[in-house]
Amino acid sequence: MASERFGRDERPAEATEDPVSDEAESERDEGPAPGVPSLADRLGAAARKAMAALAAGAIARLPVVRAAMLPRLPRLVVTIVGGLLLCASFPSLSWWWAAVVAAALLAWVLNHPATTPWVV
Prior knowledge:
The protein has 120 residues and is mostly helical. Among the domains are: 39-70; 73-120. It has helices at residues 2-5, 22-30, 39-69, 73-88, 96-111.
């Protein structure tokens, strides 16, 4: 029974016509009234305002970030070098001695008095 109806349109010819008049259709296609911003325009403006505030906040914090980063910079560099040496000790390069140097560097960083679990 369902296979007999598949592909058929059993509605009368009058029901297939669009009940919306031509005037209502033309009003619907025009969009919002002139001078009224659409939802996309309002969301775009809000996003631009939020990005500008975020950028201004980041720029205002640059001196603080620089001042906080300077004492930590040597430990950060030593940690990165230790990690790269540890990576070099694996079979691609097989520098076995690099693992010993990496362990010593990473131990120095972890035993440094300023290194804490939560950097304050």
